[in-house]
Amino acid sequence: MFRSVVAVGAVAVAAGVAPAGVKTEAVEYEADGVKLKGFVAYDDANKDKKPGVIVFPEWWGLNDYAKNRAKQLSEMGYVAFAADLYGGGKVIDTAHPEDAMKSVTTLRQNQEAWRARAAAALKQLTARPDVDAGRVAAVGYCFGGSTALQLAYTGADLKAVATFHAALPPARPEEAKAVKAKILVTTGGDDKGIPKTAIDAFTAALLMGGVKPEVVVYPGVVHSFTVPEADKVGNANMKYDKAADEDSWAKMKKLFQETLGK
After folding, report:
1. Where does 45-169 have alpha helices with state H?
2. Which domains, from first to last, does the chain contain?
3. What mean pLDDT do residues 41-66 have?
């Protein structure tokens, strides 16, 4: 069982409206010659240096859902950078999951390019004058969660990583030892794409390297449980779950308070 905590809910995510004080900008950058277009959200009223959070999106690309999560994080006092992993800020229509699979497969087969794009997002965020480069975290949804882990495996200077319904690539021994971040994994107990064997292999690999991740498994919950629009995709393994969404977000907030400070 898990406790249900009221957090910034799905209504705010779906609305897509930035509150007063929150500023948003498109950011053009590159990784190995590939032109990328990210999205940053921050509270312009606070002129102090703030902790930064990278948001790695689902396999649909840099869509409104990822941008709205960045806005939520900016409301909490972070500078949030939603990364582009495909180039040009590409967004894939949820009616065409086969296109998403092709894009994801291309990156997974070229780990160097995949990690380079993740590192480029980190560089963009930490180069900002309003960001405290010593207090940075990453969050990721679905493919984005795997991306956040890949970045952590490079030894990137991250204080925390939080993944939501993400595939869990196990770290190689040298990668596990390089991880600096505290890691939170939230996943559905009935997610057919992330079986218990994958969770166990992921956890064991990190433990061998001296990293103890916090792994939260929600019984009866499937993939995409944080996404209110997931039910419309027409995939039985993709369904929104309000309780799991709110609890996972609350656990992320607690992790950030512990690692990034207020």
Report:
1. 64-75, 97-108, 111-126, 143-153
2. 21-259 (3.40.50.1820)
3. 94
